[in-house]
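Support reply, case 0932

Customer input (verbatim):
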Amino acid sequence: MKLTVVALGHRMPAWVQTGLEEYTKRMPPEARIELIELKPEDRVGKSIDAVLKSEAVRIESAIPRQAERLVLDERGQRLTTRDLAQMFSTWMREGMSPCFVIGSADGLHASVKESAAKQFSLSGCTLPHGLVRVILAEQLYRAWSLTKNHPYHRD
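Our regenerated output:
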């Protein structure tokens, strides 16, 4: 199973890359995380809707075929770690490859959200998009560890 993360944003601080690498290297070969980083649309002289539409086209082309689309959105369903672990078990059992989409500073176009199998939130707070990458990678590792009864997660 490949866990794809499509994220708008570039030139992330070094701590973002370091944090992401820490959790991606912990993942086993059968559940590797791949980041596809897309440059946000230039916002100069454009409406937010036009920017989001343009980004939606690039997001669409970056999502692997047959991937289950999952959108991270602060207004999405709030998941617990155990919820994510249950989803992880299903993906492994059914041979699915999820794709997590993280939008730009202005969010995601409605078409991207509507095409998702699920919209979920990692927090009730608005988080910096670089931090979302790190938190998502850590939660995926934690979810995997729960499915394997690894001692990383403690209730």
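We compared this against your earlier run and they match. Two observations from our side: The mean pLDDT is 94. DSSP finds five helices and five strands in the chain. Please reopen the case if you see a mismatch on your end.
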